[in-house]
Amino acid sequence: MNRRTFLRDAALGLGALAFSGRLAAAGESSTHRLAAAWRGVIEGGRAQDHVGVLEFDWRGRRARVVAEYTVPTRAHGLMAEADGGFLAVASRPGVWLMRFDAEGRRVREHRLDDESPARSFDGHVIASADGRWLYTTETDRASGEGWVSARDVRDFRKQAEWRAHGRDPHQCLIDRDGALIVANGGIPRDATGKKRDLDRMNPSLVRLDGHTGELLGQWRLDDARLSPRHMAWNGDAEAPLLGIALQAEHDDLARRRAAPVLAVWDGATLRVPSGSVLAGGYAGDIAPGPGGGFVLSGQRVGRGVLWHPDAPEELFAIAELKELCALAAPGGDGRDGVLIGAERGVARWHPRAGAAMLAWPRAMTPDNHWVVLA
C-alpha cells in the first residue's frame, strides 16, 4: 500500500462511528490511564472543576473515574511524571500549580499570591531536560508582558525568571538540546485574560537557553492574526518536526474559518504547510500522528484532522465528533493511534485498527488537554 492510499484509508477513521454513535470494538485489547481535567455538575446544578485520573478499558468497553480532586478554578495543562503521578496548572489567568501522585491524590500545591511581582500562570508547565526544574509560562499582571519561570521541581519555588520576548506565552516544550521552545500567542489581554486590541497582535515562536534564558532565536509567521497556542514533537528521531497548533483571530468571521491551523518548525524555518480549511481556523490541541505527522482537533467544527509530511499541502479528516478537543498519543509517537476527548465520551483512532468510542461514566465536560500516565 502506498502512502497516499494509507492516508486516504486512515481518513475514514471515525466517520461511521461519529455519525451513528455506535461503539465499535477496538482493534487491540488495552487499557489507558490518563490525567485529565473536566467540569462536572454538583448538587444544586452548580458547575465544579475537577482534576483526576481516568481509565479507559477498551476490551471491557468501560470508562471510569479512578480518582478526582476538586480544584478552585479551571485547570488547563497537565504534565505526566515518571512515577505515574502528574502536575496540573490553572488556566489563564490562574494562580495555582499542583502535584498529584500515581493514585490521583494531591501531594503539593503552590500559589502565586505571595510572589512578587504579581503574575498569573498561562496554563502550561514542562520539566527541564535534566529533570531539576519546571518551566512555567506566566504573564505580568501590570504590564501584560510574558515571562518564563524556572522552578525547583521539588517544591515549585522560583529559582530564575526570563523574558518570553512576547505577550501571551502559552505552551512550552524542550528540544533535543535542552533548549526551551515557547509559543507566544501574541494576544494583548486585560487582567481577567480577556482578549483586546487584536490589531496589535505580535505572535512568535522563541527558543531560549534552558539554563540562562538567553534568546537563541525568534520566528514569526507572515500573518500576525495567527496565534500559536499548543505544540507537539512528531516523534521522528531522524527528522524531528515541531507542530504548532494555530488559532485564527481575524476580525472577519469568514477569514477566520478559512485560516490554516498548523505551522511546522524544523529548527531553522517556521512555515505553514497547508492552507486546508477542514479544521475551521481553530485547533484546540495537537498530538503526534503516524509517520511523522500530526493530529489536530478542529474543536469549533467538530473535526479531527491528520497532517502527514508525505502530503504536506493536505489535511485528512479522521473524526467527526461534537466538541472534540483533548488529544493524547499513547505510544508517544502516533504509531499507536490517538485518544480524542469529546462531548459524549472518548474516541480512539488508530491508522490500522478499528475505531472505538466509550461514553463518559457520568455527566462531565472534558477540558482542552489530557496526558497518558506512566
Description:
This protein has a single domain, classed as Methylamine Dehydrogenase, Chain H. It is globular, with a radius of gyration of 19 Å. 47% of the residues are buried. The longest helix has 8 residues, at 3-10. A hairpin with a 5-residue loop joins strand 5 and strand 6. It is built from three helices and 28 strands. It has 374 residues and is mostly beta strands. Strands 3-2-1-28 form a four-stranded antiparallel beta sheet, with no helix packed on it. It has helices at residues 3-10, 15-20, 253-257, and strands at residues 31-41, 47-57, 62-70, 75-80, 86-90, 96-100, 106-111, 119-127, 133-140, 145-152, 158-167, 169-174, 180-184, 204-208, 215-219, 226-233, 242-248, 262-265, 270-271, 286-288, 294-298, 303-307, 316-320, 327-328, 338-341, 345-349, 356-359, 364-372.
- How large is the count of helical segments? 3
Helicity range: under 10%
**Largest beta-sheet characterization:** 4 strands, antiparallel
Q: CATH homologous superfamily - what is it?
A: YVTN repeat-like/Quinoprotein amine dehydrogenase
CATH architecture: 7 Propeller
CATH class: Mainly Beta
